[in-house]
Structure formats: C-alpha cells, structure tokens
Amino acid sequence: MYIKRILVAIALLGLVAMGIFSYFVYQALFAPNTDFESSTKAVYVKTDASYEEVLEELKLILKDVESFHQIALRKDYVSYIKPGKYVLKKGMNNNEIINTLRSKNQPIKLIFNNQERIENLAGRVATQIEADSSSLVQVMKDSVFLKENNFSPTTALAMYIPNQYEFYWNTSAKEFRKRMLEEYHRFWTKKRLAQAKKINLEPKEVITLAAIVQKETARVDERKRVAGVYMNRYKRGIKLDADPTVIYALKKQENKFDTIIKRVLYKDLTIDSPYNTYKYAGLPPGPISMPDISSIEAVLDYEDHDYFYFVANPENPGYHRFAKTLRQHNNNSRAYKRWINKMGINR
C-alpha cells in the first residue's frame, strides 16, 4: 500500500513536470515574441550570413531571444539560413517567425531614373538591393560583357530603362545586370524597333537623343515638339547646339557631376569634347543621362513641324518659344537673356 502511494505520487509529479514542460514548450512555440510597435518589421538576411549574425539582428526585435534560439535548434533553422528580405508581423510567435525566415522571401520594388552615369545608377540601386555600388559598377562596366552585347563604355547607360521592377533583395550585381539586359530587349518591341528604323536611328541613338530632350524640358507634353526640332537639325546635318550636352561636357571634364549649372556661357561653347554639340555635328557618343520612357517615346514619335530653334519662355515657366528662322530665334533669345539677367542667374 505504501509503495503504491509512492508510485502514485511519482506519477503525479511526473504529470506536473510534464505539464510545466509542455507549458514552456507551448510558450516558446506559440506565445507572441515580437518587440516592436509598428505593424511589421523587415529583417534582411545577407548572402552567406551565419545563424549568429541573424540572431544578432533579431535581438533588436525579439522579446525573448533564448526561447527563439531553442525553437530554432529544434526546427534546425540554424543549419538552413536563407538570404533575403523577410517581413515579420507584430505578435508573431517563434514558430511563425522561423517559418517566415525559412520560406517567405519578400520581393522589393526597385526604382531608378534620371541618373547621369553608371556610377550614379549603381549608387541608387545599391540602396535597394544587397549588391553594393562597387560590385555593380564593376559588372556594369565590364568590357567583355559590353562588347558581347553590342554596347560600349559610352553607351552602357542606355541598357537601363527607367522603371519600377520587382527584385528579391538578395540579388547579386550580375543577376541585376542580366535582368536589365532582358528588360532592355523586352522594351524594344517590334513596334519600337520599326519606329526607330523609320527615323533612321538605332535604339541606343534614340536613347541618346531622348536624354537631350528630357534635359531640355521637364514638360512631358512639350517633349515631342522639342524632339522634332532636334530631328529637323539632325536630318539636315545641322549641329544640334544643345545646351545640356555642353553642361555634361563641363561636368565630365572636371569630374564634378554633382555641380549644378543653370546657365551656359559663350566661353563654354568652345569646350573640346565629343559631347559638345555646338562644336561637333551629330549625336554625342552616348546618353548624357537616363531618359524616361516618355522621352524615348517622344523621339520615336516626334512632332513633324518646321521649327529649328527654341529657347526658354520667361512668360510660361517650364515651356519654350519655338522659331522657324534664326531671326525669330534671336528675338526670342534676347528676351530670355534679359529675363535671366534680371533674375541674377550667372551660372
């Protein structure tokens, strides 16, 4: 009888211990374990990151790091770290957190536009994916890749069509470049290629001219007319005389692309650069910036007119006065110069 009581007591203690153990296991698995106020929190796991590195980042957003660690061991997450961007929701438990980190790599929306150089583009992209700017510059300027794909150092920027793209955060530099080449070919549909052929320009030449058009006017509804002016001059072998190309040449010569130049001076027009369209006829060697799709479309479908000149219109900011003759243009230019002098814009 005495032994029976002892056995019953041991059994009861065992049940209590099992209950306590089950409670702690349940708490470790299913109790909320996030420690942030917002509704979600992004966790970025780098390529080749160790479990210890992941745990170090999670320490900032978990209530109980030890309970997470124990579940991570039980679910063998420590051996299967996957890079990417993972979004944790407020109130998630350890089980949900680990399942998310294992299988729910969230794509990101990558956006870029209006960059003047490969270096600027790389810097912009590097703020959005894992690849750093130096590795991006290296692969984007790779001479073998450029030659194999009919690009050159001066036309390399033309391969990157400004838009919003979906990527995984852990995209490498080469993966980014590969995708952008695919997007470039996808952009140049049969229709757009036919339009380019009709105006006797190669796709990269269209982008080169579109970059000038965009720099000349921020007004989308005016771009086709501006493109028409340049096409009139280009088809007749007249120098483009585009101020944005001179500004680019000045920046390139001094390697100061962060400089803001609002006014082109007469002395600037003599700079000896293949980008100076006041000195050299035809198109520059490559794009002076990354034009929007609207600017590319403006060149492909430029306005057919008899204008050969244009200058900023002080009475309608952002727009221009167009002229068919040099005499008309000189009158418009004098009005503009009086205005710019009045505004005190010297450079």
From TrEMBL:
<feature type="site" description="Important for catalytic activity">
    <location>
        <position position="216"/>
    </location>
</feature>
<protein>
    <recommendedName>
        <fullName>Endolytic murein transglycosylase</fullName>
        <ecNumber>4.2.2.29</ecNumber>
    </recommendedName>
</protein>
<dbReference type="GO" id="GO:0008932">
    <property type="term" value="F:lytic endotransglycosylase activity"/>
</dbReference>
<keyword id="KW-0456">Lyase</keyword>
<dbReference type="GO" id="GO:0071555">
    <property type="term" value="P:cell wall organization"/>
</dbReference>
<keyword id="KW-0812">Transmembrane</keyword>
<comment type="function">
    <text>Functions as a peptidoglycan terminase that cleaves nascent peptidoglycan strands endolytically to terminate their elongation.</text>
</comment>
<dbReference type="GO" id="GO:0005886">
    <property type="term" value="C:plasma membrane"/>
</dbReference>
<keyword id="KW-1133">Transmembrane helix</keyword>
<keyword id="KW-1003">Cell membrane</keyword>
<keyword id="KW-0961">Cell wall biogenesis/degradation</keyword>
<dbReference type="InterPro" id="IPR003770">
    <property type="entry name" value="MLTG-like"/>
</dbReference>
<dbReference type="Pfam" id="PF02618">
    <property type="entry name" value="YceG"/>
</dbReference>
<keyword id="KW-0472">Membrane</keyword>
<comment type="similarity">
    <text>Belongs to the transglycosylase MltG family.</text>
</comment>
<dbReference type="GO" id="GO:0009252">
    <property type="term" value="P:peptidoglycan biosynthetic process"/>
</dbReference>
